[in-house]
Automatic annotation (TrEMBL):
Protein name in the entry: 2-oxoglutarate (2OG) and Fe(II)-dependent oxygenase superfamily protein
Top-level taxonomic group: Eukaryota
UniProt region (Disordered), positions on chain: 347-370
Amino acid sequence: MAGSGLPSLGRVKLTDLAPAEGLPSDSYKLSVSTLTQSLAQYSAAIIQFPMSDGALLRAALDSARLYFQQKASYPSTDMINNNDPRDWCKTSGYYADSQLWQETYDYRPGLTPSESNNTMEFPPAGLPDIFALLGKAARDILDAISFFLNLRSSPFSEILDNVPLRTREVSSSVLSVCCHARPSFQGAQHHNFATQEDGQLVMFSDHEHQVDKSLISLVKSDKAGLHIKDFQGRWVLVDEDLGPQEAIVYPGLALYQATAGYVNPALHRTEISNLQSNLFGRSSLAFKLMPKSMTSLSCSEMRAAGHGVEAQFQLPVPVDDFMQRSHPTDQLFNRLNVQNFNFNATQDGSMKPLVRRRKNDSRTKPLPPSKRLRLEAQRVLKERVQDIADKKGIKLRFCNLKECENHIHTLDSPCASIRMEIGWPPGVPFVHPHDLPNKAKIGFLEAYEPGWTATHHDMELSLTEPGQPSQHPANCNFHPASTSYLLHYHKCLGM
């Protein structure tokens, strides 16, 4: 990355990141490259909103200052944040953290904040509009990262909130209106200070750093103070030179988990010691795009795109468990060794992803043909077969392989009606594609994936045992429009 990296945080126009039908435009490809390169180098990027949105952001920050200024100096006991991880998707309304010298008002659509002492409280103005603005931006940014990783369109839609929310649904994503170091807030008499490398006395939250458990976080503040650790381990002040319509974006732990570690979460901390003489403190808007609690973080999309997935990411993780679990960052990953998306400049000046991996790692080797076949069969099960079953209202309950070898020869077997209704290929046991023999997997794919064909040489290659030499197929038939094109392309090359 040396010599070809960005000299500072990348700036990207939000309008250039908006996805559109058809082939990607040059501005879209350039914006995606700038965004992902900035995330790789600095774990953050600057997003430029349209000028009209800048006025809305500025008005929201002004409203935040006024809201916190009228708050009492000593918050009541029930307004003190207890940091209970079980409340990760239930926070709403005002609370204070005396240790961090921070006050927060959480806006979560679908959840009405409880009023203390039966008093009417007026929240900061414009929260629904800001929530919609930042939420749409976060989804566009997430799709841009997915495009760069060669994932299918909107691969994380299953774990995100509905747009709009359905009746009685509560948003998992949250908009936090924050205020740091308000002089009239006297709940932090015993705060600690840390010394920066240059000798200046500064105060940082949590003494070290924080990491969001979100997919994507967007932060807009009225004063500089947000530090994020870059790829080389240096703390960078990322919001020092922001325009009125600009905000900081950085990835969180949930995206790290969902991309099998290819996108590192940002380690951040907030400097507030230089705000002692400021009348209002530091106000900020922080939107966190969160996964739904009743879903799981899975790396199936990464496997389907051909990315290597380490053992720690193989099994899906329930979101609620993930959010309540502690994630020590010193054990979570080593920032200088962990796999990360990197960049390689081509002759035409465009940027192409280059995966950074550890040396002598088994993931540097191409996937064996049998494993590629298994992953392709699992993808088709998820995208095609499950869709057919859902439309027909059928719950898929697969058989045991040995038992079903007899089922396929009888008309009154337990799975006969299901096989007939969803068009299960004749002669293939009604078993999860992961457990099918390789020849049966090929029959399964030929039945459900239009254009997927396998020649005799393809079959021999798929059944080659590890360690045995394989023959390059002299003729490889595939349909360019098929979603299996990449798999057959690799087979033709003998990869």
